[in-house]
């Protein structure tokens, strides 16, 4: 896709804004993971650049994330950073396998209430992640230092919200960062800066194989961490992809994104990075500025590398308050405020899912939160549909009892299904019509088989019509007492491999 001059400028400026926002996040997550800050910065640079070029969602930003950092703490503390690099490489291989098997499409099966909970939870996490910046040596800053910092945060927020009313020629977040930095340096205002977190000066990352024993013992150590990291990374990346799809009214390619995430993590592990995934905050900054081309991610990645190699002295003088203000706005814009207003209007089960996913995302981890939300939604769906299987009966001219089944027959509705029939009261010939019913799983086939056996014991003949091919196994079990009209069986397609 070709870019106009205006679009190119917009993507370049947005990419630079994202690069600024990546610095403190990468350092903070490296500290959480007990690794060198450059390990986080290298991961952010490589993840951002590779996924921007190869990924399935132009405009989405990847880097070192808190979701990955909290998983790897125990591995680093117990075994050291080299085992982390091995786990990151294996994480990438697992993600490549996930993409090669074309499993990314199934992220579209995540219910909307789970998406709302995911977005709201991460918005709160982004907000809470700024709180440590108000601490120094483990203590909260107070007095004049706190007043100055809060004033600068407020100034950054005001610029971000007010500048678009005057002009949209440049991203307001970039102007806010530069304006606050210029103000503090010209007036020699004493406030915390990026340099107070860590030095970002470094060279190019170098290739090296992880210095670990290449044996089954090492695999047993790193595999559990790699698997969790791979799943957490893919879930966050694919849900972020879905969110940007909705924002831009376009459609990304989840399977391609899985492959890109895997390739990026393999390279990251081989070049001394801590691994990562998509970042909803930086992605929101980028897409919110209208930058939905790959160029923005490439500029962000190269910009971050430029900071490490050449611009560390300048970047370390940027006030943390400016970047905190940007992330506060991102948090506020990410949170779906409408979901709070509708909690009392949507079904109670959906409200429960939204709240549960939000809370679990904040206090534990994203993967568990999404899994919990999907399980709750699935159980509610099963409970509701279990009671929606019905039957109407009639007797035809030949004296046969006709049961016309309607609804979905699956594991949760099999008991209700059995209660719809009265074999002892039925005539010798019974027909069950499945034209308006759906047979969904093996439990349903077993239920039909059990029904056939009930009629068989009474010496009665049961005929099934309009069954799906899934029930062919039933004919072998029921023998001659069952007849099925296979020629009229419908075909049901439960998944489409062309998705994604």
UniProtKB/TrEMBL annotation:
<feature type="transmembrane region" description="Helical">
    <location>
        <begin position="264"/>
        <end position="285"/>
    </location>
</feature>
<keyword id="KW-0472">Membrane</keyword>
<keyword id="KW-0812">Transmembrane</keyword>
<dbReference type="Pfam" id="PF00916">
    <property type="entry name" value="Sulfate_transp"/>
</dbReference>
<dbReference type="InterPro" id="IPR036513">
    <property type="entry name" value="STAS_dom_sf"/>
</dbReference>
<feature type="transmembrane region" description="Helical">
    <location>
        <begin position="38"/>
        <end position="55"/>
    </location>
</feature>
<feature type="transmembrane region" description="Helical">
    <location>
        <begin position="352"/>
        <end position="383"/>
    </location>
</feature>
<feature type="transmembrane region" description="Helical">
    <location>
        <begin position="83"/>
        <end position="101"/>
    </location>
</feature>
<dbReference type="InterPro" id="IPR011547">
    <property type="entry name" value="SLC26A/SulP_dom"/>
</dbReference>
<feature type="transmembrane region" description="Helical">
    <location>
        <begin position="320"/>
        <end position="340"/>
    </location>
</feature>
<feature type="transmembrane region" description="Helical">
    <location>
        <begin position="170"/>
        <end position="187"/>
    </location>
</feature>
<feature type="transmembrane region" description="Helical">
    <location>
        <begin position="297"/>
        <end position="315"/>
    </location>
</feature>
<protein>
    <submittedName>
        <fullName>Inorganic anion transporter, SulP family protein</fullName>
    </submittedName>
</protein>
<dbReference type="InterPro" id="IPR002645">
    <property type="entry name" value="STAS_dom"/>
</dbReference>
<dbReference type="GO" id="GO:0016020">
    <property type="term" value="C:membrane"/>
</dbReference>
<feature type="transmembrane region" description="Helical">
    <location>
        <begin position="222"/>
        <end position="244"/>
    </location>
</feature>
<feature type="domain" description="STAS">
    <location>
        <begin position="398"/>
        <end position="479"/>
    </location>
</feature>
<dbReference type="Pfam" id="PF01740">
    <property type="entry name" value="STAS"/>
</dbReference>
<feature type="transmembrane region" description="Helical">
    <location>
        <begin position="60"/>
        <end position="77"/>
    </location>
</feature>
<feature type="transmembrane region" description="Helical">
    <location>
        <begin position="113"/>
        <end position="131"/>
    </location>
</feature>
<keyword id="KW-1133">Transmembrane helix</keyword>
<feature type="transmembrane region" description="Helical">
    <location>
        <begin position="143"/>
        <end position="163"/>
    </location>
</feature>
<dbReference type="InterPro" id="IPR052706">
    <property type="entry name" value="Membrane-Transporter-like"/>
</dbReference>
